Amino acid sequence: MNTFGLRRQDIYRAPLRERSPVLRYLSRFDAGEAVRWALRGLLVGAIVVLALDLRDVAAQRGLISPAFWPLFGKSDVALPDVRDAGSDSRSDPRRDVTTDEALLDGDMRFALEDGGRLTLTGRIVQGSAEAFANEVRAQGDAAITVVINSPGGSLEDAMAMGRLIRKHGFATQIPDGALCASSCPLMFAGGVERSAGSKAAIGLHQFYAAPGSSDDAAAALSSAQATTARISRYLTEMGVDTALWLHALDTPPQALYYLSPEERKDYKLVTGAQTLAAVQN
User: Fold this and answer.
1) Regarding beta strands 117-121 and 145-149, do their DSSP bridges make them parallel or antiparallel, or are they unpaired?
2) How much is the pTM?
3) Which Pfam families does this UniProt record tie to the protein (predicted)?
4) Which of 90, 148, 197, 263 lies at a CB distance of 3.0 to 4.6 Å from 278, suitable for a disulfide?
């Protein structure tokens, strides 16, 4: 049967000069080889699309890369928008934070005050856990209660500090007007007794990769799951309801979920008779 007056075999028998440049180029390849290269191209394209999708998911979900997994993320000292102020209250706790932003923005500092109150103020950076351990050794038995005011920071250091607090039998407090956000609540959870003022702000959000970290999406997904498991085991170890962390997983890195006083008690993040009472500075 003719096609536009030509048989199929006539098309392939036409001189090269009469064919289009594309046909002349393709004629250099065996048909089977051309099909194999086409399939390879489709496979590579599918892999690229999948990798890009995984990278986007990692970015949107706040997943973390293995090289930087100890970093919980740098909380915005200006306080991100409220995702929720608690299930029973839509009030914005940011208005109650009275600490100077410059103090919160600096690396964590330690000071022993009257009554055995060891104050921790500032960001939890890599190395804060070691500095805290040195401070505890230097103070001997003088410290009784760890008073916290921090926007968070390094996940690994926060949990190490929490375990050290538990080892020494310290209580933890978040006073009225103070902030404890990002990885800070994990450190706070280390207290044998834990109290927070009704006007203290306790915020949670997703952990995320530090700037410049790896784009290996598959590794990021794996590491994120492992890190979530570590956090769950840590909270169980400290006697805190692991359901607390669902609020963190649900909240994007640029926002914070602020726990209401009732939620702090329900999740066992605070303990004892002072759970809903104001803790004085």
Assistant:
1) parallel
2) 0.68
3) CLP_protease
4) 197
What pLDDT does 42 receive?
Answer: 59
| Lowest mean pLDDT segment, chosen from 98-102, 187-191, 277-281 | 277-281
Q: What are 238-259's pLDDT values in tens digits?
A: 999 999 999 999 898 889 999 9
Phi, psi of 196 (to 5 degrees): -140, 135
Both tokens of residue 136?
């505890």
pLDDT at 209: 61
DSSP-assigned letters across all residues of 110-137: EEEEGGGEEEEESBB-TTHHHHHHHHHH
| Spatial CA neighbour of 229 closest among 136, 142, 155, 179 | 155
Q: Which residue ranges make up each domain of the chain?
A: 18-61, 66-266
Beta carbons of 97 and 178 less than 8 angstroms apart:
yes
Q: State the architecture of 66-266 in CATH terms.
A: Alpha-Beta Complex (3.90)
What sign does the CA torsion over 104, 106, 108, 111 have? Answer: negative
Q: Which amino acid is at 165?
A: I
Distance CA 272, CA 268 (A): 10
Q: Which residue type is seen at 168?
A: H
For the beta sheet containing 179-181, the strands, ordered from the edge strand earlier in sequence to the opposite edge, are 81-84, 255-258, 201-204, 179-181
**Per-residue model confidence as pLDDT tens digits over 102-123:** 888 899 999 999 999 999 999 9
203: left (phi over 0), alpha (psi -120 to 50) or beta: beta
Q: How far is CA 220 from the centre of its chain?
A: 12
Q: Which of 165, 153, 156 is nearest to 189 (CA)?
A: 165
